[in-house]
Amino acid sequence: MNEFEDLLNSVSEVEPGEVVTAEVLTVDANQANVAISGTGVEGVLTLRELTNDRDADINDLVKVGDSLELLVLRQVVGKDTDTVTYLVSKKRLEARKAWDKLVGREGEVVTVKVTRAVKGGLSVEFEGLRGFIPASMIDTRFTRNTERFVGQEFEAKIKEVDPAENRFILSRREVIEESAAAARAEVFGKLSEGDVVTGTVARITSFGAFIDLGGVDGLVHLTELSHERNVSPKSVVTVGEEVEVKVLAIDEEAGRVSLSLKATTPGPWDGVEQKLAAGDVIEGKVKRLTDFGAFVEVLPGIDGLVHISQISHKRVENPKDVLSVGQDVTVKVLEVNAADERVSLSIKALEERPAQAEGENNEEKRQSRPRRPRRQEKRDYELPETQTGFSMADLFGDIEL
User: Which residues contact 262 (CB under 8 A, 6 or more apart)?
Assistant: First the structure.
């Protein structure tokens, strides 16, 4: 009787919300039965109250004989018997401890794991506690596809902690912005105008390509991509490609860097004197027509000018009347000026001058000469005074009527 009384006295009541120690008695398909130490009663620990991972195997998490610290949730009375058990939770106890640890940690950067993509953002887990990252706080740019983050681990800043409201808000965007600011300051500290640096093509637009220099995106404008004219950025570079670029200008305050890709590659005018010389006769293609002449491509990237006066021996009112874009022509090199990137060409120099044209030309020369004023002959006589003033009687006085 004394032993029985001692046993009854050793059994204490268990209250919901109490933290207890329990030993695992059995492990079934989706739950474990535990004996709550010092109470003489048993508890049920389900897989759902053990972890947030719904695909987890309970046998990987607990084993018979394990001693666990658990939170008592509520009392459960059997339907067919008068046995009383208690529903316990390991997950919620860890969450309570996590809440206690989070209070006052606003502004701290922690590592979280994304569990689900939910409406308006991401559901994440930190030390057994569920947090939320709003869509506007995921990245520096709007993120449409949030599913791609599921399963990832990354750093996020704690923005708000409210255990009473079960509110735990974090921001990944602020971590990215702060990291980018530090990287940007480091890059600007190293860059100088005229430097040739290596970067990676980050994105391509209609007006050029942005190059990641390791924290700063510099712009290679369309005109600085290639020595060729009117090229498409996509035909010159591809996203992810590593390129060498020259720094043209730096505006740290605005966070802008102007770059050039063509400045790091040989230009078509480099060594042009060894390729072209005055007097050469070469084939070319008409690229552009203007009012004053035609531009003919004589080498890749090099257009020479055939002035309107050098198109034909005949008078040409408009180059379009004689030539067309894309037409193949034979030209003679008149002059090569590599410093000014200029080549003068002639078509008519390869054509025989027509005789008519030569005659017309001489006639034009004669017409163009200024006429000498005709010398007035000196008179060796003087007119009589009567010729300076006379009357009808003076003229007809001798005529008889």
Answer: 224, 225, 226, 227
Residue corresponding to tokens 């009589």: 384
pTM strictly above 0.85: no
The residues, any chain, with a CB within 8 Å of residue 203's CB and separated by 6 or more, are: 209, 210, 239
For residue 106, CA distances in Å to 102, 131, 169, 387 come to 8, 13, 10, 126
In the chain, how long is the greatest CA-to-CA distance? Answer: 198
Nearest to 31 by CA among 10, 3, 59, 53: 59
Measure Cα distances from 135 to 128, 165, 169, 178, 349 in Å: 22, 21, 11, 18, 71
d(CA 206, CA 51): 50
pLDDT score of 68: 94
Q: Is the pLDDT of residue 226 over 80?
A: yes
Q: How far apart are CA 50 and CA 90, in angstroms?
A: 5
For 297, residues 6+ apart whose C-beta sits below 8 A from its C-beta are: 284, 285, 287, 303, 304
For residue 130, the cross-strand partners are 125
- Amino acid 193 reads E
- Which structure tokens are listed for 353? 């001058």
Cβ atoms of 50 and 59 within 8 Å: the answer is: no
Token readout for 315 is 């008078």
pLDDT in tens, 51-90: 878 788 999 999 999 999 999 999 887 666 567 789 999 9
pLDDT of 271 higher than 90: no
Q: Strand 302-307 relative to strand 342-346: parallel, antiparallel, unpaired?
A: parallel
Rounded to whole angstroms, the Cα distance separating 251 from 35 reads 69
pLDDT of residue 366: 53
Q: How many CB atoms lie within 10 A of CB 252?
A: 14
d(CA 238, CA 131): 38
DSSP state of 121: E
